[in-house]
Amino acid sequence: MSAALPPGPRLPGLVQTLVVGNFRPHVLPLLERRYGSVVRMKVLPHRDIVMLTAPRATTIRPESA
C-alpha cells in the first residue's frame, strides 16, 4: 500500500530541480501559501521529494512506554 503524495507545482522536473537548488529560501514561502506546509517537488533524476515548508509541519510524538 502506498500513501498519496502531497500536492506540488506542475512545472517540469528540470525547472523544479533548479528552483529547489538555487532559490529555495525565496520560494518556500510561496509554496507554503499555495500548497500548505507539506509540498511535493519533482527533482531530477525522476524523483519526488516531500518538503516541509514550516516548522509547525513537524510534530514529534512521544512513544508510548
Shape: globular
Q: What portion of the residues fall into strands of 2 or more residues?
A: 15-25%
The strand order across the widest sheet is 1-2
Q: Which residues sit in consecutive blocks of at least 5 with pLDDT less than 50? A: none
Q: Helices and strands, in N-to-C order?
A: HHEE
Structure summary, number of beta strands: 2
Radius of gyration equals 13 Å
Mean pLDDT: 85
**What is the helix fraction of residues, given as a range?**
25-40%
Distance between the termini: 28 Å
- Mind summarizing the main beta sheet? 2 strands, antiparallel
Structure description:
The chain has 65 residues and is of the alpha+beta class. It has two helices and two strands; from the N terminus they run H-H-E-E. It has a two-stranded antiparallel ribbon with strand order 1-2. Strand 1 and strand 2 form a beta hairpin. The longest helix is centred in the middle third of the chain and has 12 residues, at 24-35. It starts with 12 loop residues before the first helix and ends in a 13-residue tail after the last strand.
Features:
single chain, 65 residues, alpha+beta, two-stranded antiparallel sheet, 2 strands, globular
SSE arrangement:
Blueprint: H1 13-22, H2 24-35, E1 38-43, E2 47-52
Antiparallel strand pairs: 1-2
Short description:
With 65 residues, the chain is an alpha+beta fold. The protein has helices spanning 13-22, 24-35, and strands spanning 38-43, 47-52.
